[in-house]
Design a protein that fits this description.
about 180 residues; mainly alpha; 434 Repressor (Amino-terminal Domain); 2 strands; about 5% strand; Lambda_DNA-bd_dom_sf; Transcriptional regulator; Cro/C1-type_HTH
Length: about 180
């Protein structure tokens, strides 16, 4: 059986007219009639479009004319017996690796947050109103003491470059000693 005859069988199998089939696989209508008449041979792109639209068809049958038209035993089909006796597929492995990676990243973040909470004392909360004046010198010296303690513990060569205070009302102040 020639390839144009196999394309004709696919056309019959689809239940579409030639023009509907061309629209369905996104090719020019004239290419269908040229292939069916035997004037032209189908390109690999043409055959791939058929296979993408009708995945149940066998590559060997479409291209070579060997075997059955419809696949009976696909490496991609999953039956319950295959799932019980076979190793997990690629996507399952990727999904498990992703879940493990996210779990490890969350643990690292949680551990880092615990370390930060140990290193820095929690700031005292004060309710500020627009009419209150900020005691800048007190805030600066308190922040310098906290940073100096931390720097002394972690890095003896560090010097303070900038201190930034962020307030709950969305304002901030930056100081450079």
């Amino acid at each position: 059986m020639e390839i144009n005859e196999r394309i004709t069988k696919v056309l019959e199998y689809s239940g579409f007219s030639a023009s509907e089939f061309a629209d369905e696989i996104d090719v020019q209508r004239s290419s269908i009639s040229h292939i069916i008449s035997g004037r032209n041979k189908p390109s690999l792109e043409f055959v791939t479009k058929i296979k993408n639209r009708f995945p149940e068809l066998s590559w060997d049958w479409i291209i070579l004319g060997t075997g059955e038209m419809k696949q009976t035993d696909s490496p991609f089909s999953t039956s319950e017996k295959q799932e019980e006796n076979s190793a997990p597929d690629l996507f399952t492995l990727i999904d498990e690796d992703y879940k493990n990676e996210v779990f490890v990243q969350e643990n690292i973040q949680n551990e880092t947050l615990r370390e930060l909470n140990k290193s820095f004392p929690s700031p005292r909360k004060e309710i500020l109103s627009d009419s209150q004046r900020l005691d800048i010198q007190e805030n600066i010296s308190e922040a310098q003491n906290i940073v100096n303690e931390t720097v002394t513990k972690n890095n003896t060569e560090g010097k303070i470059k900038r201190i930034v205070f962020f307030y709950e009302n969305g304002k901030f102040e930056a100081f450079e000693p």
